[in-house]
Amino acid sequence: MNARHTPGPWDAITSDGRNYRIIGGEEAGYVAIVKATFQPQQNAANARLIAAAPDLLEVCKAASAVLTGFYNAVADSIGEWESGGSRPLYKTEKILHAAIAKAEGWEI
């Protein structure tokens, strides 16, 4: 069984504009550290993306549930979902499912 991630929200903080600490959870412990290995703007962007991870995971799960519910409501009128093909909703659902699996450490 996989361990759960530190609950959000997470924040990216810096004291020098180059190195970032990602903090989160009830005790505001460190979740990750982004070291100054890239340009300062890239370090900041990486830190923001990492800090947004719990929110992004939550919205991926919500969007996946909406798409699955939509499909179940209109399956007869849009054809076989399982066949996929180039249907944008099917592709979106697969991308969401893969992102959730990657974040939660389960295989697809």
Write the element-wise H/E pattern from the N-terminal end onward.
EEEHHH
* Biggest sheet record: 3 strands, antiparallel
Low-pLDDT windows of residues: none
Number of helices: 3
Please tell me what the overall shape is. elongated
Characterization of the model:
The chain has 108 residues and is an alpha+beta fold. It folds into two domains: 42 residues, no CATH class; 51 residues. It is built from three helices and three strands; from the N terminus they run βββααα. A three-stranded antiparallel sheet has the order 1-2-3, covered by helices on one side. Helix 2 runs antiparallel to helix 3. The longest helix has 26 residues. It is elongated and about 55 Å long. The model has no long low-confidence stretch (mean pLDDT 83).
Offer a few descriptive terms.
alpha+beta; elongated; single chain; three-stranded antiparallel sheet; 3 helices; 108 residues
List the helices and strands and how they pair.
Blueprint: E1 10-13, E2 20-24, E3 29-34, H1 40-51, H2 53-78, H3 88-104
Antiparallel strand pairs: 1-2, 2-3
Describe, in short, the structure shown:
With 108 residues, this protein is an alpha+beta fold. It has three helices and three strands; from the N terminus they run βββααα. Helix 2 (53-78) runs antiparallel to helix 3 (88-104).
